[in-house]
């Protein structure tokens, strides 16, 4: 019998697949993306998020009508622009960035690139 944790994980995976197929994120995805900075960072005054999770089919038909289907071309980036209150307790930023990255990669997929700007300065960029 499947546990509720396994069931929840499967639902999240299925929703990520739906994003790939439809090219649109759900309300749940968007809400989570917008709330994550408030979970992982202290003293967030403002959090803006920009993302590009679009994909485009990559198929070619040659002169003999042979069809070549390549993996779709995907954009997979999420960028946060955070404004933090002065004097906020944000020790161990490396751990906070790792938690944000892990949550987003669970929500979507593993090769997602996450970038974070804090008070206008680049603070973090994940690797694929």
SSE blueprint and pairings:
Elements: H1 4-22, H2 27-40, E1 44-52, E2 55-61, E3 67-74, E4 77-84, H3 93-107, E5 113-118, E6 121-125
Parallel strand pairs: 4-5
Antiparallel strand pairs: 1-4, 2-3, 5-6
Helix pairs in contact: 2-3
Keywords for this structure?
alpha+beta; 128 residues; four-stranded mixed sheet; two-stranded antiparallel sheet; single chain; 34% strand; GMP Synthetase, Chain A, domain 3
CATH topology: GMP Synthetase, Chain A, domain 3
Q: Termini distance?
A: 35 Å
Could you tell me the mean pLDDT?
81
Strand order of the largest sheet: 1-4-5-6
* Principal-axes shape call: globular
**SSE string, helices as H and strands as E:** HHEEEEHEE
Coarse structural class: alpha+beta
Strand count: 6
Major sheet description: 4 strands, mixed
Beta content: 25-35%
| Residue windows where pLDDT falls under 50 for at least 5 positions | none
Counted by DSSP, the helix tally is 3
Helix percent reads: 25-40%
CATH class call: Alpha Beta
User: Rg, please?
Assistant: 18 Å
Count of domains: 1
Q: Which architecture does the CATH hierarchy give at level 2? A: 2-Layer Sandwich
Verbal overview:
It is a single chain. This protein is α+β, with helices and mostly antiparallel strands. The protein has a single domain, classed as GMP Synthetase, Chain A, domain 3, CATH 3.30.300. It is 38% helix and 34% strand. The chain has helices spanning 4-22, 27-40, 93-107; strands at residues 44-52, 55-61, 67-74, 77-84, 113-118, 121-125. The strands form 2 sheets. The protein has a 4-stranded mixed beta sheet with strand order 1-4-5-6, with helices on one face. Strand 2 and strand 3 (67-74) form a beta hairpin. The chain is globular and about 65 Å long. It starts with a helix and ends with a strand. The mean pLDDT is 81.
């Amino acid at each position: 019998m499947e546990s509720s944790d396994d069931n929840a994980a499967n639902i999240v995976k299925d929703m990520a697949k739906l994003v790939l197929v439809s090219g649109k994120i759900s309300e749940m995805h968007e809400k989570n993306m917008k709330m994550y900075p408030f979970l992982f960072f202290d003293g967030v005054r403002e959090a803006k998020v920009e993302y590009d999770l679009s994909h485009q089919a990559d198929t070619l038909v040659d002169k003999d009508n042979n069809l070549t289907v390549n993996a779709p071309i995907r954009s997979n980036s999420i960028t946060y622009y955070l404004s933090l209150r002065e004097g906020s307790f944000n020790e161990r930023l490396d751990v906070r960035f790792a938690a944000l990255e892990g949550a987003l990669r669970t929500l979507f997929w593993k090769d997602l690139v996450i970038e974070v700007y804090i008070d206008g300065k680049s603070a973090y960029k994940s690797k694929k």
